[in-house]
Amino acid sequence: MKIVNIVPGFGGRFYCGNCLRDTAFVGSLRQAGHDAIILPVYLPLVMDGKEPQGDLPVFYGAVNIYLKQQFPFLRKMPSWMEHALNSSPILKLASRKAGSTRAHGMEELTESMLLGDQGFQRAELKELVTFLKTHEKPDIVHFSNALLLGMAKVIKEELRIPVVCSLQDEDVWVDAMTGEHREKIWQILTEKARDIDAFIAVSDFYARRMTEMLSVPSEKMHVIHIGIKPDLYTYSTPASDPPAIGFLSRTSEENGFGILVDAFIRLKSESRLSNLQLHYSGGMTSDDRKFIQNQMKKLRDKDLFRYTRHFADFSLGALSGFFRSISVLSVPVLKGEAFGLYQLEAMASGIPLVQPDLGAFREIIDATGGGVVYHPNHPDALAATLAEVLTDEKKLLKMSKAGHESVQEKFDCAKLTRKMIGIYQQIQ
Q1: What does the pLDDT look like over 77-99, one tens digit per residue?
Q2: Environment class of residue 88 by beta-carbon count within 10 Å: exposed (0-12), middle (13-18) or buried (19+)?
Q3: In whole angstroms, what is the distance from residue 120 CA to residue 115 CA?
Q4: Which of 124, 128, 136, 354 is deepest in the core (most CB within 10 A)?
Q5: How far is it, in rounded angstroms, from Cα 42 to Cα 6?
Q6: pLDDT in tens, 347-369
Q7: For the chain, what percentages of helix, strand and coil (3-state, to nearest 5) are there?
Q8: How far apart are the C-alpha atoms of 64 and 43, rounded to whole Å?
């Protein structure tokens, strides 16, 4: 089969679990003998400093569509200007700006994108469809998330092929918008969901959530967990000299970094954990700088900054050193997540998890035995759970081994890709 995966690019500025998921999936499809490619939209898809789409263009260039949305007179800009704004240097510059990853302020653009050929990006949609018809001729088009649903109807009508859509954390983007826009966008998403032949949720939790929000018939909703390539990760026992708590995600308020810092400050007051360290990685956007500065100030005020370590490089190769340096991983996302790929990366490397009992975190931990959950998502509860885990070496090692073995058995990307291929075959 020829499968085209349409994914939002992010410019490589921070740890993007969805992007890692998409690139690993395409790689597994290719290994299984299928012709699979990635077509990025908005921004380049940069992974480990490279663009896995090769020479393929970026569609719906972020600068172009933003300017056209905000300034109607630019909707008839000359082609040379469009090409200039879609150039790689301009798009990479745009990826550094806060607004490229922030839902607030993007309400009208999100709505227009979901309207497809009825929105202001109809020219970009026509360009994408023409490219698919003349250059790729796919058997399946697979969207990375539901915020791309506005493209589905025209693609199906013009190419006469099935369209599949993965589901992961779209609600975080939509629910961050102002009330009036939020309700309208959910309504549009529900309408556009009818154009999809199969939805792929990354967890049972999120399948239930989106079945309700999008009114998806049960026969169209499937659950396939995220997978990784386990052999890319090196197992080691959790660090003990010194012990360290790890954080791997975009270093932001919504991902709970502030909760973890506060829990770390509480733990450092206990004599039995006086040598505890805090290691963090995952990058940031310009929106996050002030928040991170405030967290570092809290640590300096308590004379604890010297016990922290920042791993600026979060590429796959560099992460092996990060995982070898920590004892547990905790990413206390404020509202939970549909999955959280960093969980698999940590467990594959022998690192147990301490996660809030929100979203799909319990589902993944119950499936692996590779960690524990706590409640409520508050620094006191997190500190108490971390203290319990870090001071019980036997339990720590048991979770380390269980998580590592479960990832190999249940979350191998190649095995999960075979399930996806089965769904493709059902809807063709």
Answers
A1: 666 666 655 555 555 555 555 44
A2: exposed
A3: 8
A4: 354
A5: 11
A6: 999 999 999 999 999 999 999 99
A7: 55, 15, 30
A8: 11
Rounded Cα–Cα distance for residues 21 and 3 (Å): 16
Q: Cα angle vertex 38, ends 37, 43, to 5°? A: 160
The DSSP output letter for 55 is: T
293 and 217 Cβ atoms separated by less than 8 Å = no
Measured over the CA atoms of residue 321, residue 256, residue 173 and residue 123, the dihedral's sign is negative
Q: Which two tokens stand for residue 289?
A: 């700088």
Q: Summarize pLDDT for 29-71 with one digit per residue, the tens.
A: 999 999 999 998 887 775 545 555 556 778 777 556 666 666 5
C-alpha 127/C-alpha 79 separation (Å) is 12
> pTM for this structure?
0.88
Q: How far is residue 363 from each of residues 123, 247, 358, 371, 424, measured CA to CA in Å?
A: 42, 20, 9, 11, 26
Could you give the CA distance from residue 267 to residue 274 in angstroms, rounded to a whole number?
Answer: 8
The two tokens of residue 152 are 């589905």
Distance CA 197, CA 152 (A): 10
CB 267 within 8 A of CB 302: no
**C-alpha span between 362 and 369 (Å, rounded):** 10
Q: What angle do CA 131, 20, 367 make, to 5 degrees?
A: 130
- Residue ranges and CATH numbers for the domains of the chain are 2-227+413-427 (3.40.50.2000), 230-410 (3.40.50.2000)
Shortest CA distance to 336 belongs to which of 359, 303, 310? 359
What is d(CA 72, CA 422) in angstroms, rounded to the nearest whole number? 45
